[in-house]
Amino acid sequence: MAILRAMKAAAVIEQYKNGRRDFRGESLRGGNFRGADLAGADFSGCDIRGTNFSRANLTGVKFTWAKAGLQKRWLMILLGLALALMMFSSFFSAFGGYVVGLIFDSNPENQVTGWFTLIFLICFCAVTWRKNILAGAGAGAVAGAGAVAGAGAVAGAGAGAGAVSGAVARAVAVARAAAAAVAGRVAGALTLFYFWLGWLTLKQEHRDPWLRKIVIAFAAIGGTSFFQANLTATDFTGATLKSTNFNQAILNRTIFKQAIKLELARPGNTLLANPRVREFLIDSRTGSGKDFAQADLRGAYLEGANLQAANLRLADISEASLQYANLAGANLTEVNAVNTDLRHATLTGACVENWNIDATTQLDEVDCQYIYLLNGQKERRPSSGEFQPGEFTKLFAEMFDTVDLIFRNGVDWKAFIAALKEVQVQNENTPLQVQSIANKGDGVIVVKVHVPSDTDKEKIHQEFNQNYQLQLAAIEAQYKAQLTAKETEIAIYRQQSVDMMEITKTLANRPIHVEAKAMSHSNDSSPNITIRDINNSAVNFGEIIGDVTNTINQIAADASPENAQLKALLQELTQAIEIDSHLDEEEKAEAANQVKKIAQASQNPDDAGLQKKAQRAVNFLETIAKALEPASKLAQACQKALPIILKTLGF
């Protein structure tokens, strides 16, 4: 067997700074590398017993087949402490034997005490053997204290327990030979029982986990320490890790394949604290059908692991490496897979209900023919057939390139479009496309907007919300102004109606004169229908249309393309009013007068009064159009023309 060369920690650090990375086969026993940066070094096959790597940066370091644990001098110290603890435990054993020996005492009271103690110890041992020390401790504090001490003694030296216990028992035993014999046997039996109990505690992790933690922490004193060390991507393949301290270490994709005696290392608060997880890290081929529900596998190295049909419901596999892992038929319901490496993994038949993934989850080259979106093999995707190569990755990758905009009281689409355009301009014309619109019920609308993969989605989301609220406020103010204008028009109309009623009453009080005249050469026998305004002037509807047409024709179409477009739109509106069967003559006349106001305003852009009348006219036409059937001529013409007219006039 080759003798490892001794090497001081200072020399290793110096050579590392000079560029050396290969330290294979070196003896680093007892070295102090506290806080050192040794990233990428190779310590394969090294003797690192008693070495202190606390708070060191060991990213990517290789410790394959290295030997960690206690140095011989620390082993002797711990054995001495264990022996002292053994003697202390033997005192309780001897005392218990002495009390039991009182059965042979001539004093009846002492005999009762002896029998009571014997029954007491038998109950304690039986309950402890069947359950654990805490359950047995309910049978007696003295016996329980002895058991704890005995479990601690298992860390090193139980060989002479019977002899020491017998000696102490004889020193305090009664003089009679029978009592002394019983006391010695009871003391020895108790000590052996404690010895066996301590061994069982280390062997079976589900028994007395609190005691096991104490024993392992005790045995790790002076051993190899990785306390608070950065062990990201560190390789411990085949390493012996007994009496090694991993408390508060960063175990991110750390490799523990075929590690030896890892169960005797101090895990602290790392993922090694879970026996199922620890055993799986040592041999990841054994996970098929296993239950890892709610397991902490954060940052675990599980490349090539067999997790076929395994239950990972609510498990945390974030930052874990699962390249080439077999997850076929696995239950991944509500699993946390943020920043998880699933490249080349097999996911056929897996259930991914509500799994948590994001853009950092690596899904390249995933082997998947189909998946289920709900438990119980429900909601298969694709519904029939299989995914073609790359389709699974594309399906979920598209989810990452979207910004979800949630509206809880419906959507004002005018404000939405304006806000989306504004955000696009603010972000240097970043393409923003509405991918889908989903009605979630109760007035909740979710709009998914597709963005480039390198876009700051949080920034886009915040800017959109800000712009949307601003647009809503502006539109609300506009609606309020329009409503105020409508109310003013209604008030004027009502006043006009009152005036008309007064005029009607006045006319009704006048005498009616009937005059008959002979008519000659008259070819028109139809009545002449007229409309009188409040000035008592009769105006024919045909004359109104003619007047409107003349006003429109006065618009200089050759002055600008906008004027030509406005002129054409006003002509369309006039024609629609004239032929719309949903309007009566009075409504047509009123609508035509509104078109005339718009035409007059277009010819006098500097006249504020006309501009205000034109804006009210547009609002009036909008109101009429909304009250009509969508198929009516005027409603269709207004829908097309009014937005352009507003833009042309600058409203």
UniProtKB/TrEMBL annotation:
SUPFAM superfamilies for this protein: Pentapeptide repeat-like (SSF141571)
InterPro entries for the chain: 5peptide_repeat, Pentapeptide-BTB/POZ_domain
Alphabetical list of Pfam families matching this protein: Pentapeptide
Keyword Transmembrane helix: yes
Keywords, sorted A to Z: Membrane, Transmembrane, Transmembrane helix
Transmembrane segments: 74-100, 112-129, 141-165, 177-202, 214-233
UniProt-recorded name of the protein: Pentapeptide repeat family protein
Originating species: Microcystis aeruginosa NIES-3804
Upper classification of the organism: Bacteria, Bacillati, Cyanobacteriota, Cyanophyceae, Oscillatoriophycideae
